[in-house]
Amino acid sequence: MVFRLNNLMSQEDSHFIRNSIIALVVGSLIYAVITSSWLRKIPTAIFSFIKHIISLLFSWLSSNIVMPKWLICILLILALYPIFKLFKYIIKIYKKTDQTLNKPYNEDNIFGVIWRWDGTGDWPRFVMPYCPICDNELVCQEQRKDFLPVSLLYHPHFTKFVCERCGVSSDELPGDHDNAIERVEREIRRRSRVSQRETKTVVEPNQGESSASG
To answer: Is residue 30 part of a domain?
Structure first.
């Protein structure tokens, strides 16, 4: 048993000595690499390489290049084409905006159907409903919620405007035909006021900018 204990102790001592030697060698190698002169030159070499690349790129961009005239014409055409498209698009938007501002307000989709009238939005006259699908004139239908027939004694609860071809109908408007038409006229005048207010808000800043520039 004493022999086996001595054998184990000798093995542990040999492992300790071996590990110490390996650690000493590895540490010496790491120290030698860190303190070597070529390793300290790596940042300088990288900086010099980047500087050289930048100088080559700058010299290439600033150098004169001989090109045939036909190639120059092609490049000019390719450069002018997107500018022309952009200019055309701006003109199209300007014309569309101008037409929208100058177009008389006498048609709109209100309560689910198309309404057209004479005059302006401030004072609509002869308001008529049309189908938004087939553009057919709509028929007025006065109805009651209790399904009793409309008469002098039983006034209609609501009015709808129905297309005889497509079956499209407007929203239910309270009251009889005259009440429904009056409500549509009020909505037309309201939308006209809102549109005029928004147009005035857009035009006034543009006039201020033009007077400031002048």
So the answer is: no
Element (H, E) at 180: helix 177-213
Residue 165 lies in a domain: yes
* Distance in Å from the first CA to the final CA of the chain: 113
Tokens of 105: 């307000």
pTM of the predicted model as reported, rounded to 2 decimal places? 0.47
Going along the chain, which residue ranges are E strands?
107-110, 113-119, 124-130, 139-143, 158-162, 173-174
* Side chain identity, residue 26: V
Alpha-carbon torsion angle 93, 96, 98, 100, nearest 10: -140
| Boundaries of domain holding 145 | 110-203
Q: What would the two tokens of residue 206 be?
A: 């543009």
pLDDT at 62 > cutoff 80: no
Place of tokens 């014409």: 73
Number of domains observed in the structure of the chain = 1
Residue 171: the pLDDT is 92
Whether residue 12 is contained in a domain is answered as no
